[in-house]
Amino acid sequence: MKLSRIIANTGEWLSGSGPDDQIVVSSRVRLARNLTGRPFPGWAKKAERVAVLEEVRTAVERIPEMRESFSEKLEDLSPLEKQVLVERHLISREHAAKGAGSAVVMNAAQTLSFMINEEDHLRMQAIRAGLQLREVYAMISTTDSELEETLDFAFHDTLGYLTACPTNVGTGMRASAMMHLPGLVMSEQVNKIINSVNKIGLAVRGLHGEGTEAMGNLFQVSNQTTLGETEEEIIGRLDRVIRQILEHERNARTILLQQRAETLLDQIGRAYGILCHAHSITSKEALNLLSFIKMGVDLGLFPSRFRLQVDELFIETQPAHLQKGLQAVKMGAEERDSLRAALIRTKLKQMPEPEIGKIPTNGSAPNASGTTHPSEEP
Amino acid sequence: MFCDVCKSKEATVFLTQIVEGKMQKVNLCEACSKEKGVNDPTGFALADLLLGLGAAQEIERNPVGSRCRVCGFSQADFKKTGRLGCSACYDAFAEGLSGMLRNMHRGNAHTGKVPARYAETRRRDRELAGLRSELEKAVAEERFEEAASLRDRIREAEERPAAAPVAEVNRIAELPLGLPEPTDPAKRRKP
User: Fold this and answer.
1) A125 in Cβ contact with A13 (< 8 Å)
2) Calpha distance A327→A309 (Å, rounded)
3) Does the reported pTM lie above 0.90?
4) Does residue A212 belong to the interface with chain B, where contact is any CB pair within 8 Å?
C-alpha cells in the first residue's frame, strides 16, 4: 500500500467513534519488545540493526491483521512524510529522526502501527477513538501473542519483558488517553489535576508526549510505571483516573455555564470570529481556538454535523499536513500560516454562527451525541 | 549560592524536578553542569534525572560486572545514555539496577503477561525441580520403590521436548504441506 493512500484518509481513531469520545479523543496502548541476545538499537551496529529490521518486519507483515498494510524503511521516507506520521501519532518524534535500519509498518485503518528499531527493537501500538483502553490493550496483546510465535522476545523470569530503558521493563506497556480539557483549563483547575495525577504515579503530558507543550487544551494521561503490576491492573488504575478527570471536566463546564456563561460565550464567539476571518494564523493559535469551537459543538452551540470537520482541522492544520498535497519545496512559516488560515476559512465556511439561544442556563449541558449526561445517572 | 557538586564555584544552572510529588532542586556551576551533561538534555544521565544527583555514580561505583559479557556495554555507557546495551545487561548490572528499579516502579517483579512459549518451559522446569526434590526426600527416607518411579517420571519429563525453539516453529510453518490450495471464487468468475 502507498503512503499517499494512508495520508489521504484520516485514521479510524479520528473519524471513528468510541465511548465518551467528545472529551476522550483517543485511547492508545503501546508495547515495547526486544529480541533475545541482540544489542538494543541504540547500541547495535548498523548491520545488526538491519538484520533485526528484516527479521521483525517479515514477522509483522505476516500476521493476519497486516494483510493490507503500509510498510516502509525510514530512510525511504521524506522528512515531510515522516512528520505527517508524527502528527498522526503513528510514529514518535524520536523514530522520525532515525535513518537506515529502522522502519514503520501500519494497517490501512491506522489502528495498528509498528516502529521497528526505535529505542527498542519493536514498539507496537493500537489506537482507537474514545475511552476504551481495555479493548485497545486486548487488540495489541493479540498481535503480540501472534508475533511471539515467530519472534523470540527477551523475557526475564523476574523482570518480565526487557527493554532498552529500565523505565519500560516489566510489561513494556504504556497506555494513554488523549483528553480535551478546555473546561478545566478555563477554570484554572488543570494544574491541580496534573499535580494530583503525578502524585499517584501517572503522567500528564502535552500533545505529542514527553516534553511537549499542551496545545489546544489537549492532554495525554498515561502510566509511568511498568513493573510490579499486571497489564490489567495498570489499565484499571489509569481508567479510573481518566474517568475522574472526565467527570471533573464535565463539572467544570457545567459550572462555567452557570457562573461564567458570558465569558464562555465570548471565548467561543471570538474563536469563531478569528478562525473564520484570519488570513494568517500559527498552528498554536489555531489549535487553541479550535479547542473552543470543539467545546462549542459539545455544548450544542454549533450543529453536531460539523464535529468531524472541526476534529479533522486539529490534524489538518499541523505543519506537515498543510503541505502534504503540495510538491513544492519546504514552505516557510509565514507561507504556512497564510495557507493554514485559508484552509480553516474554507472548512468553516458552511458553519453557522454560534447559536447563543441554545446555551442552557439551568446548568445542565446539552449532549449532542445523545449519550447520558452524568447528572442524569442515578 | 554555591554549586552542589564542587561546592566552590557560584551556581548558575538550576535544575528542578518533581519525583513522585517531591520537588528536588539541584544547583550547578557552569563547569559541573557541562560535566553532568545538563546543557544537553539527552546526554544527562537518566539515573540522575530520576533518582537525584549521584544515583548514576552509585551504579558506576559498583564494581560487579562493569561490562556486559554479551554486548560489551559498560556502566559508564549507561550513565551517559540512560539506556542499556542488550537484554543480558539486566543480569550483568543486576546489582546496580535493582535499587534503581525499586525507585522507578511499583514493585520489583513482573506479574503480568508471559510469552506462551516461555510459560511452557517454566512449567516444565518447575515440574522437574519438584520431582527432583521429592526423589531426594524418598531416597533419604529409604522409600526406594517410590524413588524408582520418581526417577522414571523425571527421565520421561526430561526427554519430553520443551516448547519448540523459535527456529523450529518457523520451519514447521514453512513446510510445504502439499495440500491443494482453496480456489478463490472471485478469481474463478473472471474470464
Assistant:
1) no
2) 24
3) no
4) no
